[in-house]
Amino acid sequence: MNFFGVFNKMGLRNHKPFGARVRCREIGIRRRNPASSPRQPRTADGRRPPNGYRRPAKGNQGSERGSVLVIVMLVAFGMVSIALYFAHSMSFELRASDNRASGLATGQAIEGAARYVAYILANYATNGVMPTNDEFECAAVPVGNAHFWIIGRDPSGAPSSEPYFGLIDEASKLNLNTADTNVLSYLPDMTTDFAEAIADWRDTNGLGLYSMNYAPLGYQDKNAPFETVDELRLVYGATMDLLVGDDLNRNGVLDANEQDLNGTGQVDSGLFDYTTVYSREPNFHHDGSSLTNVNDPAELRPLLEARLDSRASQILNQLQARGGGPGGGTTYSNLLQFYLASGMNSTEFGEIIDDVTCATNVAYYYGRVNINTAGVPVLTALFMGLGMDQSTAQTAAQQMITYREQNPDNLASIAWIVDALGNTSPVVQALARGDYITTRSFQFTADIAAVGPYGRGYRRVKFIFDTSDGAPKIIYRQDLSRLGWALGEKVRETWVAKTGGLTTE
């Protein structure tokens, strides 16, 4: 008899042992009621499902599987989104890295261009000669995978829709520290009030010539010479129309994004293009030795005899007859005045021009305008400031431009202005009354713009070089990249659009 049989005989068939109930509760098992919960059928492997397991109804299986599919799709979509996000970020990072590398290459191209310009000036700008574009490259010059251009101004003033490339002669402009208000006021779009404000700013007496009120601007006038042309921004009455005109990016042409304020179809530049503070000409030889004083007969005679041989006596006699030279009483204040009195022709004067001066007690001459490179606006303003009417001044300026284009080999000295305008020209006579002009230059602007590999990493830096003390040296540097693209549409199409590059970093 087994254990359960004993319980049956004792009448305890339906009795539930207290210990079994307690143990089931302790271990958390719900005892199966055989009547209400039949045994589960065996599975395919011969095992029974655990007690309490309920086979899902056939109608619920599809909804559970759909829920799982939605969850999987959401997870997959999230993972794909994250992957695309990081891929997009890496694409931008790659482009940014490429732009940074192009920017570095462009920066090095500009530094290389500055050294290149210094080399050109050291070898070709001797004795104040302006280097010509035939002597060096100034457009699309390669430096590694980058290229640079030197943005200049066409001395002929010919209209153009594309920038001119070359060096800019600082002596082709009016010097803000030496030009008087009469000359400055005749520059294009200039006003008399602003010309007076310029004179007031540079006046050194501490009070100012015209007593401009700078108090509303929060500062006082300088009462000292200009150190940079950009100081014009601080002068009372300065506006961007006066300073840059139509040429917002200061490249010398009217670009598509610039407004033609005067309706001329051509760029109207501002004072930045016509003025300088750097024009300075040494009054000694490049080796430091003194020049020959034309007012000293003992110095002048040996020079004339050495250079002009038999003509020396005739020239000296001519000077003496007109009250100058040996035995004469005239003291020449400028070389044009001496030339007119000497009777020499322009070729003869060109033989001595680099060795003569009117005074030896002056180390440098400031503010002379180079008539070989000055444009019509500057020459016109200079002549009108000396008392010429507008028609006479403009006609003379245009005649000079035409002459120097037709006679490029006869520009060695200021004597050519007499050949171009004549001895009796009122302009020539006015210029002979002061020391206004020259044909030598020692300060040059190299406005360098560069583009890196694939047309990216555009940069632009303006350098001003001074050769008046011998070796070229940089005296001013200004980053102009902020002004935007300045190389014109042709360069953009060639070096940017076709390469798929960017114009800015």
Please supply descriptive tags for the structure shown above.
15 strands, elongated, single chain, 38% helix, two-stranded parallel sheet, 16 helices, seven-stranded antiparallel beta sheet, alpha+beta, disordered C terminus, 505 residues
Task: Describe this entry's structure for a reader.
The structure is a single chain. The chain is of the alpha+beta class and 505 residues long. The chain is 38% helix and 11% strand. The strands form 5 sheets. Strands 1, 2, 3, 4, 13, 14 and 15 form a 7-stranded antiparallel sheet that branches. A two-stranded parallel ribbon has the order 5-6. A two-stranded antiparallel sheet has the order 7-10. A hairpin with a 7-residue loop joins β13 and β14. The C terminus is likely disordered.
Give the strand tally: 15
Taking all residues together, what is the mean pLDDT? 85
Quaternary state, please? single chain
The number of helices is 16
Q: What is the distance, rounded to the nearest whole angstrom, between the alpha carbons of the first and last residues?
A: 99 Å
Largest beta-sheet details = 7 strands, antiparallel
How would you sum up the global shape?
A: elongated
Rg, nearest Å:
44 Å
Strand content: 5-15%
Strand pairing plus helix content: what structural class? alpha+beta
Low-confidence stretches: 501-505
- Helix % is 25-40%
